[in-house]
Design a protein that fits this description.
The chain is mainly beta. It is built from one helix and five strands. A five-stranded antiparallel beta sheet has the order 4-3-2-1-5, with no helix packed on it.
Length: about 120
């Protein structure tokens, strides 16, 4: 079991990503290949969860597109991630905020973390 994790560490080149968790609003620059063209598309939304560890770690982002909620599950070790930037830090009490799916309007707001520099 330990041998497998050691081999996976060697094979997968992991990029340096910013620290983020559930409730944070992030923007992911994702490479999309269409035929022989390659372009970068932004996907901005709220992180609902992070799960897994090592090479199998993923995170789920949710955004509202019109009145329709769009979720995307992205592996942390994906070679298609160009960059990730944290836009807002959210103050939530749980690691997986699935209740956020049923919320609309004012109840779908997440408080922003207060950063104290004392």
């Amino acid at each position: 079991m330990n041998l497998i994790s050691e081999i996976q560490k060697e094979l997968v080149a992991r990029k340096e990503l910013p620290q983020f968790g559930a409730g944070d609003t992030i923007s992911v620059s994702y490479k999309i290949v269409e035929g022989n063209k390659e372009r970068i598309q932004q996907f901005q939304g709220v992180v609902i969860q992070r799960r897994g560890s090592g090479t199998t770690e993923t995170f789920t982002i949710r955004k509202m597109s019109g009145n329709i909620g769009v979720e995307r599950i992205i592996p942390v070790t994906s070679p298609f991630i160009d960059s990730i930037s944290v836009i807002k830090r959210g103050a939530v009490r749980r690691a997986r905020i699935f209740y956020f799916r049923e919320r609309t309007g004012k109840s779908a707001r997440i408080r922003e973390k207060k950063n104290f520099s004392h």
